[in-house]
Amino acid sequence: MILDCDPGHDDALAIMLAAADARLDLLAITTVAGNTTLDKATLNARRVCTIAGISRVPVAAGCDRPLVAELRVADDIHGESGLDGPAFGEPTVPLAGEHAVALMRRLLLDHPEPVTLVPTGPLTNVATLLRDHPEVAPKIREIVLMGGSTERGNISPYGEFNIFVDPEAADLVFRAGLPVTMIGLNVTHQALVTPDVVARFRALGTPLAEACVELMTFFGSAYERVFGLADPPLHDPIAVARVIDPSLVACVPAPVAVELTGAHTRGATVVDLHRRTGALPNAQVALDLDVPRFWDLLVDALTRLSGSPDAASPW
């Protein structure tokens, strides 16, 4: 798989989960502007890889703005750095010397079997890849994205942040004719980082686990301030978990359209669960999460990474 992300607190744990689970072959980590600017997101990906001992996966920077709109970042949730909380030292993991879209294309065409793309930020990189390099389509097994919602939004009443930031890119991806699974807010809000979850992280007793505690503490304070939620939802790792073990996330096929022009609904995912439009399904839409097994999976991943000889102290 290739993880395309915009770290971001929840992206950070998605990186750790993707790198730690032996059932995945993580070919690359690519970054995109979203939660924060491209430069900060890329630095944050390198920081996470450094503290987690992820040294053999290339990290490549991608698109620094949406296809059409101006970039809107989520510094009210993720802070000025995009990954506020721990006082990170300088990363030792280098940046790959090619654009993320070029790296994705090369890896897809060179790999002997189809590859899964897991975008957990705006879909700008993936849309650019599909638009500019249609020859890669047969090499994509599926796209498992974190974005959208069957219900509420989080950046506007109906718009989820990743889709809202670049709805034109999301529209292209959903209409590409490829297998797509949508992990939306209706599912990610089932995975709340409660005090018991934080205590499980802290009980690991390692610098990496403590960094995760600090990340989740900042993340939780931001969610309480902005949304009035005491326990924040951990969105992005659920997309990775779905690839690792599809039985963790229950999905149904449904037509999904992205609203591009609505004065109040731009960026909304219109999910036709009851098939009222007559449109054919173009996505598997996540509805339910096996919450206890999800947290077990993530804690096991942090346990494995905490024992890595390459892991570095974040400080």
Keywords:
two-stranded antiparallel sheet; Inosine-uridine Nucleoside N-ribohydrolase, Chain A; 8-stranded mixed β-sheet; alpha/beta; 12 helices; 315 residues; 39% helix
Can you say what the CATH homologous superfamily is? Ribonucleoside hydrolase-like
Helical proportion, percent range:
25-40%
- Number of extended strands: 10
Look at the structure and give the mean pLDDT.
96
The H/E string reads: EHEHEHHEHEHHEHHHHEEEEH
Keywords: Glycosidase, Hydrolase
Domain Inosine/uridine-preferring nucleoside hydrolase: 1-296
GO molecular function: purine nucleosidase activity
InterPro entries: Inosine/uridine_hydrolase_dom (IPR001910), IUNH (IPR023186), Ribo_hydro-like (IPR036452)
SSE layout:
Elements: E1 2-5, H1 9-20, E2 28-31, H2 38-52, E3 59-61, H3 75-78, H4 100-110, E4 115-119, H5 124-132, E5 140-146, H6 161-165, H7 167-174, E6 180-183, H8 185-188, H9 195-203, H10 207-227, H11 237-244, E7 249-254, E8 256-258, E9 269-271, E10 283-289, H12 291-306
Helix pairs in contact: 1-11, 1-12, 4-5, 5-7, 9-10
